[in-house]
Specification:
By secondary structure, this protein is an alpha/beta fold. The protein folds into 2 domains: 7-166, Alpha-Beta Complex (Spore Coat Polysaccharide Biosynthesis Protein SpsA, Chain A); 180-253, no CATH class. 35% of the residues lie in helices and 20% in strands. The protein is built from 9 helices and 11 strands. It has helices at 30-38, 77-88, 105-117, 144-149, 157-163, 167-170, 180-193, 199-209, 233-245, and strands spanning 7-12, 24-25, 28-29, 46-52, 68-73, 92-97, 122-124, 137-140, 210-213, 223-227, 248-253. The strands form 3 sheets. A 6-stranded mixed beta sheet has the order 5-4-1-6-8-7. Strands 9-10-11 form a 3-stranded mixed beta sheet. Strand 10, helix 9 (233-245) and strand 11 (248-253) form a beta-alpha-beta unit. The N and C termini lie far apart (42 Å).
């Protein structure tokens, strides 16, 4: 709760071939890890798993607890979110991607603080400096249409400061689990850190696979990189182009997890 206002975190999901909620990592299911991250927030009162009203989605009942509930609503995501907000009487809603174990309570709480301080009815962290699946939007009850119409890219000073050491790579990091390749990546992460999906651990994980080495024989304006891309394949060319634009010489690529 913030300023006497009840805060919901709504995870938009649909159990289908692309949903990884029930995949097990040690004793944890992926959705349990995500829920645990959200409940670290000092403001979030309740987490809602927001799914279409379909018999197959009754599987999500296994995640229900005192602060976690499932809402069965419309097959249209925007309408379902509106229905859930009204059903649970949320004053403020944090809308979250599903299959995202790296949700960061401190970033959510900071965004809520700024939203209240700046007297806004919705707040977006969609930005080039934050990985897409770490981005989220917040809105006050009754302002869902304004919230959905906002397609802007925001560069909040507090967010830029938080990510200033990682601006070139942040948008390329895989932080969602939504395909066979990203499942392998997260399993590698889990084997290293368990369910402690902190940003520091995320940075350390990727830095282990992307090792920068400078050599004296390379001109001063160039650097040589030993490149192991721990990314899904679609990111590889974008990332290589990023280094080439920065005058890096790529020694070799190991594209095998």
């Amino acid at each position: 709760m913030i300023n006497g206002q009840y805060v919901l975190a709504a995870i938009q999901l649909h159990h289908n071939a692309y949903d990884c909620s029930f995949l097990e990592f040690g004793p944890d299911k992926l959705l349990n890890i995500q829920i645990g991250q959200l409940l670290k927030s000092k403001y979030i009162d309740e987490v809602i798993i927001n799914v279409p009203d379909d018999e197959i989605n009754r599987k999500f009942e296994c995640f229900v607890s005192d602060k976690v509930h499932v809402f069965y609503g419309s097959f249209e995501p925007d309408q379902r979110l509106d229905e859930a907000v009204n059903h649970f009487n949320g004053d403020i809603v944090v809308n979250i991607y599903g299959n995202q174990p790296f949700n960061q309570a401190d970033i959510i709480d900071t965004a809520l603080d700024h939203m209240i301080k700046e007297k806004k009815v919705y707040y977006s962290t969609f930005s080039f400096c934050l990985p897409a699946r770490l981005s989220f939007k917040i809105f006050k009850r009754g302002y869902i249409k304004e919230y959905y119409c906002d397609k802007n890219d925001y560069q909040h000073p507090w967010l830029l400061k938080h990510w200033k050491r990682h601006l070139g790579l942040a948008e390329l990091w895989t932080t969602g689990v939504y395909s066979e390749e990203t499942v392998h990546i997260f399993r590698d992460f889990y084997n290293m850190f368990g369910s402690e999906t902190t940003l520091d651990n995320l940075f350390e994980f990727y830095n282990k696979f992307n090792v920068f080495e400078s050599h004296s024989e390379v001109c001063n304006h160039q650097k040589r990189i030993l490149f192991y891309p721990a990314f899904e394949e679609s990111y590889t060319f974008d990332l290589l182009n990023f280094f080439l634009r920065k005058n890096y010489i790529v020694d070799f690529v190991v594209n095998d997890l």
